Amino acid sequence: MSGAEQKIGIKIPLGAQDVEARAAQFLVKRRNQANWDASDQIEFDAWLAQSLAHRTAYWRLEAVWERADRLSVLRSGSLAEDAIRPSHKRAMISKISAAVLAIAIVGAAADYLFSRPGDKIYSTPVGGHMAIKLADGSNVELNTDTVLRAEVTNRERSVTLVKGEAYFQIQHDPDHPFSVTVARRRIVDLGTKFLVRLNANRVEVALVEGRARIEAADATMQARAVELRPGDLAVATVDSMSVSKKTVHELADDLGWRRGVLVFHHMELADAVAEFNRYNNVKFIVVGPSIARLEIVGIFPANDTGLFGRAVKTVLGLNVERHGEEILISR
Q: Do 156 and 217 have their domain in common?
């Protein structure tokens, strides 16, 4: 029995160790881009597609790594990555690799030890869409590349948005409030329809109907709680939160993905491309800042890269060329 197993006090199934260790190997190699090539990407994509357990293991370790990155930045001030000598980078990767592998084993054991029977994990692939009806009658729709963990019983109604975007239509129960935890924020339902999106360290909450409260989920945070009204868009980062208003039509456009479409109203091309790339494995690349600032208008099927490319070519007069899994947009 390993030291990690002795400390946790349970025996980790060999399969779980294998999955976590493989996830850690992929993570470390992907972070060291010099050693990552097309064959590695094919192998990685195939491994992720094999099972939800593979995807969940990788996403958990990726989140651990990102938290470690943030702590590293906080401790080192404004030290840029480019200022770190290559030899130091290799040493850091080696140390983090070992740490991630250790976390993988302990993390697998912790999952078996602390997971609750009612927990369910839902996920969608890139370009995917899933409608869920929870045990309390609430409805949730998951957008592309999203992971949601739910614990909904007669006594507890809570979910965690691990990554991605989801639209909630909550059955109100004043005796058992429904809460959504995302990053370090918590949204508490007060009879609500709302949209939540996690983008890196930025959380967006758009209230469509009813009322909701957004508050700190971490007791160490000093963030104030804010009650949202219909049309409110709350944007929260680690140390700030702002609230602005959206019209009914703007909210409807933001929810276009529920119908399988993306709606752009004079959106800069760079932002439109970034949004399109969320839904497709084939990625658009904009070449040049002047092109990136051009604006585009239209309603496009989220998974139709061909139609979007033709519109960019025809309307904006740009060159659109596909090279493997990339589509270059240039003058």
A: yes
- 3-class DSSP assignment, residue 327: strand
Same domain, yes or no: 247 and 264:
no
Q: Are residues 94 and 60 in the same domain?
A: yes
Q: What is the CATH number of the domain that holds 311?
A: 3.55.50.30
DSSP notation for 197-235: EEETTEEEEEEEEEEEEEEESSTT--PPPEEE-TTEEEE
Local structure of residue 125 (DSSP, 8 states): -
Residues 173 and 266 placed together within one structural domain of the fold: no
Counting beta carbons within 10 angstroms of the beta carbon of residue 68, is it exposed (0 to 12), middle (13 to 18) or buried (19 or more)? middle
Q: At residue 41, what are phi and psi to the nearest 5 degrees?
A: -65, -40
SS3 276: helix
Q: Are residues 146 and 105 in the same domain?
A: no
The answer to whether residues 58 and 20 touch, using CB atoms and an 8 Å cutoff, is no
Query: What digits encode the pLDDT tens for the residues 34-87?
Result: 567 777 777 777 777 777 677 777 776 776 665 555 444 444 443 334 444 444
Q: Are residues 267 and 305 in the same domain?
A: yes
C-alpha torsion angle, residues 77, 80, 83, 89 (rounded to 10): 90
On whether both 128 and 159 belong to a single domain, the answer is yes
> For the chain, give me the number of helices (H) and strands (E)?
9, 16
Number of domains in the chain: 3
- Distance separating alpha carbons of residues 300 and 65, to the nearest angstrom: 35
Q: State the residue range of the domain holding 32.
A: 3-114
Q: What is the pLDDT of residues 131-171, one digit of tens each?
A: 999 988 999 999 999 999 998 887 789 999 999 999 999 98
Q: Which residues, other chains included, contact 271 with Cβ-Cβ below 8 Å and sequence gap of 6+? A: none
- Range list of β-strands (E), 43-146: 120-123, 130-133, 139-142
Sequential DSSP letters for 248-283: HHHHHHHTGGGGTEEEEEEEEHHHHHHHHHTT-SSE
